[in-house]
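Appendix B. One record, verbatim.
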Amino acid sequence: MLNVKLVIFLFFYVSNIYCEPETVRDNVDYLSYGNNEDVLKNPDIHIPKDEIVLRPQEVKDWPQQSLNVGQITAVSINSLGQPVIFHRAERVWDESTFNESNVYQNLDKGPIIEDTILVLDPHTGSVLHSWGAYAFYMPHGLTVDHHDNIWVTDVAKHQVFKYTPSNHKYPSLTIGEAFTAGYPYRRRVLLCMPTSVAIATTGEIFVADGYCNNQILKFNAAGTLLRAIPSFSDTLTLNLPHSVTLLEHLDIVCVADRENMRIVCPKAGLKSYIDIMEPATIIEDPTLGRVFAVASHGDIIYAVNGPTSQNIAVRGFTVNAVYGNILDTWEPTTGFTSPHSLAVTRNGSHLYVTEIGPNKIWKFELTDVYDKK
């Protein structure tokens, strides 16, 4: 009886958490790490002599022409090496977009009438084809899985959608109920502003849920809920899991734990259910700031932070997932402003970063720039 009451209490509690828009808060809301700006912008980086660290080098004049898009909230790479982006067109998330119960307030505007999903030429950045008009209200996350299915999250609808390569009009799987913010309870799975999705090669689905519920949900390929991370008995807590990436060979799912200003990597439970009881790897550093997005290739996690405070630089990070240490930091020549997502090509040759102000996408080549002699 006690457990039932606890679940009911948690349901009503998390369903009434107010989620702030994706705007920069006042600096006083963030931890101050001191006034030594040089220390914060140049962390102590230890690179093993036998480790090859690929640094993202900006590809100049890419894209070659303006894309004329809104806030680019997500990017992922398909099997052809083409970046696929998700943008909001004219929509902007501000303090009036949701009420205190996380209910979307602009239903009268209808769905976005423009194509919101664009497939780009990796060489020129031009739009190869697009779709997604009249389908979404407030785009957020997009992931292309190993079979070129496209998974998206709409924070206004509180839902996750799966689209197959042959059908971009109707989703083949939907998780959550339209415009209904809530908490998963028994057979009824409600989400609250889901942010990101990661898909295992075995079909399991990991959903960052998200702005309100502060958890990662694991589903089977059919969309049946398997577990929540953290569990009720776990000492781990998340504070706005904004992005997720799977490192299957390590059996971990790494999370951009945005408001906790860290990267958290609990066990994914793809290989063993016994291992899920192991404590999560936690990657923390005073220079990380609010981590907006994570992506991975091999043992490496690439991450970007967003505006945090005046003494924390906005930039990218290269992190060793095994040892949990920062190997490198990077940024374009003109710097980042508000990075929101990133993705690595499947062969590990290039990296893309998108921003929500200015609304743009960057391309980087991953190059070995270190002399190991």
